[in-house]
Design goal:
Elements lengths: L1 H21 L4 E5 L6 E4 L1 H7 L3 H4 L13 H12 L6 E8 L5 E11 L7 E8 L1 H23 L3 E5 L6 E4 L1 H7 L3 H4 L4 H4 L4 H12 L5 E7 L5 E13 L2 E10 L1 H50 L6 H31 L8 E4 H18 L3 E6 L6 E4 L1 H17 L5 E8 L5 E7 L6 H4 L22 H11 L3 E7 L3 E8 L2 E2 L7 E3 L4 E4 L5 E5 L3 H11 L5 E5 L2 H11 L3 E5 L7 H8 L10 E5 L7 H7 L3 E4 L4 H12 L3 E3 L4 E4 L7 H8 L4 H13 L2 H14 L4 H12 L3 H12 L1
Parallel strand pairs: 12-14, 21-22, 21-23, 23-24, 24-25
Antiparallel strand pairs: 1-2, 1-5, 3-4, 4-5, 6-7, 6-10, 8-9, 9-10, 11-13, 13-18, 14-15, 15-17, 16-17, 19-27, 20-26
Helix pairs in contact: 10-11, 10-16, 11-15, 12-13, 13-15, 17-18, 21-25, 22-23, 22-25, 23-24
Catalytic activity: ATP + protein L-histidine = ADP + protein N-phospho-L-histidine
Enzyme class: transferase
Subcellular location: Membrane
Length: 731
């Protein structure tokens, strides 16, 4: 009874064991060691190999493993039976019922329990997926090694944890001067001149991909130090992250950059020397010009001279002015290159500004037999806020060139707002044009494009200064030109509207003969007697008492003793310069409120701000312009000038004539004339109006008053008013 119970328990345990084996994903077989025939196969074995349980019971292990011979199997089983090994593992190829073969891993184990018959348990695992992964990994490693070794770039594999160089290609060995065996014993700190702390910090940035590019200095086996640029990023190798680094030797590039920087510093030093030279040269030239232009202005005011003498003086003055403009161009260029130019924006009457410029160049054009057309494209503000001096300088340069390089045809000056609220200026001529190869050079200093016959006038600085001033004002200049047909220059700059505007009356220059009130004293300080003589010649006839000093010390002594009402002081003098003299005078209580006006030809070296900081109230550049000097005297001395018969010559904004005056003045015009003038004014043809009025005056001299009146309106661009007058005359 006990034997039956034991057998029943054994069978139960076997069934439970088989149930467990059926849940395993590997194929499990049991066979006898003498016949190799199967007596058990689990569910996975049936599914994987494709045989039924019945078929398996007629088969042995050798029928599933074609590559396994009887002898090989026997040797392995002997090792198990003799307990030389507890299990045997090997890899081979198995074959399914459909003849498909696949790689497998086989485990064999010999089992004998008590006196029961022994058997062999065989576990066969399909390792196809692992084989595929391993094959792909091998291929990847082969490609990696091929890339790592065959590419000429220097490559290193570094452990971020230890800093050890775990791999290096042949290019790295050649660069650093180590064999492969030697370099793999090195740490990155052995070749990087950075401190270990710095290196660790950089590797942390690289492994976390916060930074990928680095600049280092690496030490070679020879001891040489090379500048290198390193790309370094993380790479996963065998489950751990390493740093994959590509090294570029940039030593020669660094050397070239240093040479370039050195050359740049030399060039900048040379440029500074040139700038200093130009500034000094302009100072030396402006000083004698102060005497020439000063005396020319004194003589222009002398009514005892003949007309011929006045003409000669005018020639001297214009020649001096022309030379001064050339010097100013050189000075402007030097200041622009040294970035010392500042814009001084003020409110001014824009329409008056354009009228003055247009009238000037209409005259120049007429003298050359050219037409000059002013073309306002859009409504133009009456007043704007800008640097009037610099804007005038830009337009004068461009219009001068247009007139100078045009032999026939004309010049068109166009102004208007664009959609970005930028003020656009355009100057177009029908002149000689510019060759394409010259266009790139015309904005360079001392370059003059175009016909050689036109190059003698000027130094080639105008367009360079214009270009840089426009950029300083926030704009950009453009040019389009056809050789033999003409050129078109245009630029746009942001301009703000002024908050005021009134119609202005231009008054002819009035001669100042003196001032109201008691006599005032002026201390003139300059180391050149010629400059003192010019100021004395200008101011003494007006009733001023002139005191002279030749240096700063003499100035302080005379100012403290004589207490002048105003001081005109040169800034550059021997013994004591004007700056120090002004600073010391401002410490004397009696002189703290005395107006002091600085005068100097060295406006590049000693800017306006420096003189103001020293204690001056204002500044005048040499050569001194009489109008500027007298205007400052009026302001700081609070005086009213006395004039010799002032004469208003024209109204810029003309009041509308009363209807009665219109009828009387226009009564002499024929209907044909009024209709033609109306048509010309409708078209905006100013030159046509002027020509028509000249014809009318020639044919009807008695209409001189009306033709002069209408010509003045045309020159002031009052085209709409002329048209309205012609309409009224027709009614």
């Amino acid at each position: 009874m006990s034997t039956k119970m034991e057998l029943a328990n054994a069978l139960l345990e076997l069934e439970q064991f088989k149930t467990i084996l059926d849940t395993i994903l590997d194929s499990v077989f049991m066979f006898t060691p003498d016949t190799y025939r199967f007596f058990y196969v689990n569910r996975e074995g049936v599914q994987r190999f494709g045989y039924s349980q019945t078929e398996f019971m007629q088969m042995n292990i050798l029928s599933l493993i074609p590559s396994l011979t009887n002898t090989q199997l026997e040797k392995n089983l002997i090792l198990l039976i003799e307990k030389q090994k507890t299990f045997i593992r090997f890899e081979t190829t198995a074959q399914c019922k459909d003849q498909q073969q696949f790689p497998v891993e086989i485990y064999l184990q010999y089992i004998q329990q008590n006196s029961e018959k022994p058997y062999i348990v065989s576990i066969i695992r399909d390792i196809s997926e692992r084989y595929t992964t391993e094959r792909q990994l091998r291929e990847k490693e082969e490609r990696y090694h091929q890339f790592f070794e065959t590419n000429r770039a220097i490559k290193l594999i570094i452990s971020p944890a230890t800093g050890i160089i775990e791999d290096a290609n042949q290019a790295a060995c050649d660069f650093y001067g180590y064999s492969k065996k030697q370099i793999l014993t090195k740490k990155i700190s052995d070749i990087n001149v950075f401190t270990p702390e710095q290196i660790k910090e950089e590797m942390t940035l690289a492994i976390t991909e916060q930074r990928l590019y680095f600049n280092f200095q690496h030490r070679l086996a020879s001891g040489d130090i090379r500048d290198v640029e390193v790309y370094s990023g993380p790479i996963l190798v065998n489950g751990k992250y390493l740093l994959y680094s590509i090294v570029h030797d940039i030593t020669e590039r660094r050397r070239a950059e240093k040479d370039l920087q050195h050359a740049k510093e030399i060039a900048e030093a040379a440029n500074r020397a040139k700038t200093t030279f130009l500034a000094n040269m302009s100072h030396e030239l402006r000083t004698p010009l102060n005497g020439i232009l000063g005396y020319a202005q004194i003589l222009q005011r002398d009514k005892t001279l003949s007309t011929q003498q006045h003409d000669g003086i005018d020639i001297i003055y214009r020649s001096g002015e022309y030379l001064l403009n050339l010097i100013n161009d050189v000075l402007d260029l030097a200041k622009i290159e040294a970035e010392h130019v500042q814009l001084y924006e003020t409110d001014f009457q824009f329409q008056l500004f354009l009228t003055e410029i247009t009238k000037l160049y209409q005259l120049h054009a007429t003298q050359k037999g050219l037409s000059f057309t002013f073309n306002p494209l859009t409504y133009l503000p009456t007043g704007i806020k800008a640097d009037e001096k610099r804007l005038r300088q830009i337009l004068v340069n461009l219009l001068n060139n247009a007139i100078k390089f045009t032999k026939q045809g004309g010049v068109t000056f166009t102004v208007g707002y664009d959609e970005q609220q930028m003020m656009c200026f355009q100057i177009e001529d029908t002149g000689i044009g510019i060759a394409p190869e010259e266009l790139e050079k015309i904005f360079l200093p001392f370059q003059q494009g175009g016909d050689q016959r036109y190059r003698a006038d000027g130094m080639g600085l105008g367009l360079s200064i214009t270009h840089q001033l426009i950029e300083l004002m926030g704009g950009k200049i453009h040019v389009r030109s056809t050789l033999g047909k003409g050129s078109l220059f245009w630029f746009s700059i942001p301009l703000k509207n002024a908050t005021y505007l009134q119609s202005s009356t231009i008054v002819s220059p009035q001669i100042i003969t003196g001032y109201q009130g008691n006599s005032l004293s002026i201390l003139v300080v300059d180391d050149y007697w010629e400059n003192r003589a010019v100021l004395q010649g200008l101011l003494k006839p007006l009733g001023f008492i002139i005191i002279e000093a030749s240096n700063g010390l003499e100035c302080i002594e005379k100012a403290d003793k004589l207490r002048p009402d105003l001081i005109l002081i040169d800034l550059v003098m021997p013994t004591m310069d004007g700056f120090e003299a002004v600073r010391r005078m401002r410490k004397i209580d009696a002189l703290k409120q005395t107006p002091i006006i600085a005068i100097s030809a060295s406006i590049f070296e000693l800017p306006l701000e420096a003189s103001i900081e020293a204690g001056c109230n204002s500044f005048l550049p040499k050569p001194i312009q009489v109008e500027d000097l007298l205007d400052k005297l009026r302001v700081f001395l609070n005086i009213q000038w006395q004039y010799a018969k002032p004469k208003p010559v024209e109204n810029i904004v003309m009041a509308e004539s009363p209807h009665r005056r219109t009828k009387i003045v226009l009564a002499g015009l024929s209907n044909i004339d009024t209709n033609e003038l109306r048509e010309l004014s409708t078209r905006g043809d100013i030159n046509g109006i002027l020509r028509k009025l000249q014809i009318i005056e020639q044919e009807h001299p008695h209409l001189h008053e009306i033709t002069q009146y209408l010509q003045e309106m045309a020159r002031n661009f009052q085209i709409d008013e002329i048209r309205e007058l012609m309409i009224q005359a027709s009614t």
